[in-house]
Amino acid sequence: MADVRVRPVPAPVATESRGSASSGSALDALMDRYARGDDAAFNDLFRQGAPRVRGFLLRMCLDPGYADDLTQETFLRIHVARGRFEPGAAALPWLLAVARNAFLDSTRQARVRRNAVAAKVAGQGAEPEAPASGRGDSTLAAREMLDIVQATLDKMSVTLREAFVLLRFEGLSVAAAAQVLGASEAAVKVRAFRAYELLREALGPEVGGRP
Amino acid sequence: MTGERNELDLFAGIPDPFAGGSGEVAASVDRLPAPPVLSTVPSLTRHDQRRRRAVAMAAAMAWQIVWLVAFEHRGDLRSLPVVRVALGVLVPLSAAAIAWGVAVRRGDRGLGAPRTWIAAAIVVAPLLFVVATLAVDPADHDASAGAFLNRAMRCAGVTAVLCAPLLAGIVFAFRRAFVAASTWRTAALGVACGAVAATTMSLVCPHDEAGHVLLGHGLFLLLGGLAGAALGKRVTRV
Description:
Chain A has about 210 residues and is an all-alpha fold.
């Protein structure tokens, strides 16, 4: 097998919006090539898939360094299990499901570390990612709102958080999220709406989008 | 889909604490340390996986056939009505096929069948075996409880010997195979293995009483499922 040491390069993110079947086709094709044994596809797969995987993991663990480690672990698992990727399947839900497994295993094995990270994040006043200057969310009110969302996500159970993150932030359909989570669609909806209610309650009545 | 989108549009009111667009996330990925040299990590391609699965299945089936040919099979096999033999074989095989089919199903996104389907198959497959066994229960029973238990325990032992290598081989073939619902899917594989062992037992054991068949032969549909569930997270999950 070829040496596939990677020098990651930023790339546009392939988005799978709800109901969209074709937007992730480049990622699907790359994953398919890699599953067939084309080692050279890994670099591009990492470049295109890692942003989505890391974004999901970041929203799950709320710590950039931890998300980086888990992204590495996820791509290692993807490498080991690449032959299990079915021909013609959608790559993004598959990648996110592997990422979720990596996250769950990691949190189970190191709950102490998880708690320490959570305490650290909370203690540092929530410093997830340095916001780009001039993006408009640098005002105090917006910052506070984001802190509340992050703190609430951190406090809620993983089952609620993952359902909400997949539907709200990763843009998966309920059916896709249900398969990623190995749960029924009804269960995913219930979990996501519970998470939404918790967030809305934390943010106050004027925020949250309730009509 | 429109209804779903309307419902989920409510979520848009919740701001993303990690927003910043794809550019920022991608820039963060750029800061990631390089992944390890993957050439040192064993990785089977799709072709390798298919071959491993085929070898495991062939070995598992060979074990059942070896047992029938070399060790034991029921002496009255040739004198039995064809329908009875067919039922004894086809019903547990159908149960195995249901459980197997759902466990290895590709699914819409390559993530397997929905969990509700798998759960249903795990219930339906043993239920089919139970109903069919009760339906063909012969009227003439040996009433001796001691003899019943002895026979059932002996058959359970043989079924265990038939089922355990089968399950071990199949679980090995599906090592790191299931990305989602691995516990449920491996449980379904366990049920399928138990059903295959029960099929072999229908050709090994001359006792057709429902109680005996359910306890001595069919118990491993349940135990196989439980063993599969226990192995799901540890062995078959990616």
